[in-house]
Amino acid sequence: MLGQSLHTLISHSVSISVLMSVLIPTLGSLPSNVQAHNNGDRNPNPILEQADQQARQPDVSPTRRIDRQTDRRQPTAEDNNTPAIRTFNGTNNNQNNTTMGSVGIHLTRLVPTDYGDGIASMAGADRPSARAISNAVAAQTDDMPNNHNASDFLWQWGQFLDHDIDLTDGTEPTENENIMVSSDDALFDPTGTGSAMIPFNRSIYDKATGDSADNPRQQLNEISAWIDASNVYGSDLERANALRTLDGTGQLKTSDGNLLPFNLDGFPNAGGDSSALFIAGDVRANEQVGLTTLHTLFVREHNRLAQQIAQRDPDLSGETIYQRARQLVSAEMQIITYREYLPVLLGGNALPPYNGYDDNTNASISNLFSTAAYRYGHSALSPQLLRLDADGNEVIDGHLALRDAFFSPQRLVEEGGIEPVLRGLATQVCQTIDPIV
Asked: Which residues contact residue 98 at a Cβ distance below 8 angstroms, ignoring those fewer than 6 apart?
């Protein structure tokens, strides 16, 4: 299972705070960038103890401009030189390579390009349709639960994490390379016209590339590549501020039912900029109900931490409260990823001991990882999301077919919130990770 503590606690509580208070003391020494300090029994949660120590540091530099009425910090040149506060765009994490892992840089390449013309055109003109290959090679018809008792949290955490580290959207204007389907394809061409296609748009790329064989097209990562909770907070200042209450509490906005806020200001969102969709740090937060549930959980966790930090030091500004809570949420995501998720995915002995920050390691995302390797999770999905009440029984609204879970925030608004989904993710055994879907 993906962390016994994660499953047991989330099935009984919607707050990560309970999870972390039990999980963190069992972890031993933490990496230096999230090293905790526990002074006796005053605070049993070492990450919150770290926040307590940080709260005793000077609030903000006198050169950093603060609007005290709203606590909306105005960015200054100092922002790019302050190691204590992560930039939203991922710059300056590596002091020797300040743009590594930042917004808008090239996806790295582990193998050479293979364009049809050697420059930019799609390869595969002489190959079968991608749909035909998928049907022949990757079709799954039977239920195939994994043999290790890993739950749906395995793939759901994987998707949530993925949306923290990479995003490569389609080009604008679009470069359509629609996928042909055969006339006997019951799903995409039920009437057998022979002319149906699956819409497909090529990936966004650096417009300064793709003009010669010496300068082939290079795709971009549109978000920070670091595990920095950008999916919760955003990868740019404008979106980050739109998610905040900016009322001096350091908290993030929520809507009725303690759910995510709605996209009332029309920010870019997958599925459209409709105000009927939620807004979060990543544009894909509405993609399916399980993902939206984790986004909601971490917004609640930020606000819980912000409340606790403010209670411990009422003199802190809203900006400092926000940044402290943001720092802790990022640390929680790293801990869950490296202590629970990756050992289940790769095996308990797959990760070497942590030996400190290595500034020679390129943390940027590769094309192969984002477009192929990390798609493993698609094979682990089940055809439905379980929704369970506190007694472990199916809720009145029933389980949710995966096909009905996409871009459906109303399922959380009208059908019991995130708690039933969390219990279901923790309960259902996910499908086997294999080449079929």
From this structure: 80, 91, 92
Q: Which amino acid would we find at residue 177?
A: E
Q: What is the extent of the structural domain holding 388? A: 4-96+134-167+227-427
Task: Compute how many other C-beta atoms are within 10 angstroms of the C-beta atom of residue 429.
Answer: 17
| 74 pLDDT above the threshold of 90 | no
Coil, helix or strand at residue 384: strand
Which residue spans within 26-96 are E strands per DSSP? 66-67, 72-73
pLDDT number for residue 78: 36
List 163, 295, 378, 399, catalytic entry = 163
Query: Based on the structure, what is the number of domains in the chain?
Result: 1
Answer yes or no: is 202 within a domain: no
Residue among 261, 268, 275 nearest 238 (CA): 268
CATH number of the domain to which 156 belongs: 1.10.640.10
At 116, list the tokens: 């049809």
User: Closest Cα partner for 210 from 267, 239, 171?
Assistant: 171
Phi and psi at 364, nearest 5°, equal -70, 160
| pLDDT tens-place string over residues 164-218 | 999 999 988 899 999 999 999 999 999 999 999 999 999 999 999 999 999 999 9
Q: Report the b/e string of 161-170 with b at 16+ CB within 10 A.
A: bbbbbbbbee
Tell me if 131 sits within 8 A of 180, measured CB to CB.
yes
* Terminal-residue alpha carbon distance, the chain: 21
CB atoms within 10 A of CB 312: 16
- Kindly report, residue by residue over 235-286, the tens digit of the pLDDT: 999 999 999 999 999 999 999 999 999 999 999 999 998 999 999 999 999 9
Residue 183 placed within a domain: no
Reply yes or no on whether 7 is catalytic.
Answer: no
pLDDT above 70 covers what percent of the chain?
A: 81
Using alpha carbons, select from 308, 344, 341 the residue that is nearest to residue 324: 308
- Rounded to whole angstroms, the Cα distance separating 220 from 104 reads 6
pLDDT of 85: 87
72-73 and 66-67 strand pairing: antiparallel
- What letter would DSSP give residue 236? S
Give every CB contact of residue 187 below 8 A, 6+ residues apart in sequence.
Answer: none
Average pLDDT over residues 385-392: 98
Tell me the average pLDDT of the chain. 85
* Residue 198 parent element (H or E): strand 197-198
